[in-house]
Specification:
The protein is of the alpha+beta class. It is built from two helices and six strands; from the N terminus they run E-E-E-H-E-H-E-E.
């Protein structure tokens, strides 16, 4: 099986030694995205809905670079610094996914990179 790194300038650049996504066979693993604006690397720090929207826009860009879309998502992992934001993030997520929804986990964590409130990663299934 070939492993292929996927990177695009339409999503924020990686903050460390990792790829924005990696394809392994029919599966594409998208790295966690935080609410950074591509190009400027400006953080969205307003309410959680605005942060989540930017994160899903970033994930959309990486999905497209991989040859797919969020419609190809089979798993979503959400990390929040406050589970009180759960419903607001659900409301934003509904704007990016249709039924049948991908499987999902959502956990509260002590902290996230750059002090943001949300980080989301996605796994896509893209048959070759």
């Amino acid at each position: 099986m070939t492993i292929q790194a996927i990177n695009t300038d339409t999503a924020p650049e990686a903050l460390g030694p990792y790829s924005q996504a990696v394809r392994a066979g029919d599966t594409v693993y998208l790295a966690g995205q935080i609410p950074l604006v591509p190009g400027t690397m400006e953080l969205i720090t307003s309410d959680i809905s605005a942060q989540a929207k930017q994160v899903f826009e970033n994930l959309t860009a990486v999905s497209k670079a991989a040859g797919g879309s969020l419609a190809d998502a089979v798993k979503v992992n959400i990390s929040l610094t406050d589970l009180g934001d759960f419903n607001a993030v659900n409301d934003v997520m509904k704007q990016y996914f249709n039924e049948p929804y991908p499987a999902r986990a959502c956990v509260q964590v002590a902290a996230l990179p750059k002090g943001v409130d949300v980080e989301i990663e996605v796994i896509l299934y893209l048959p070759q």
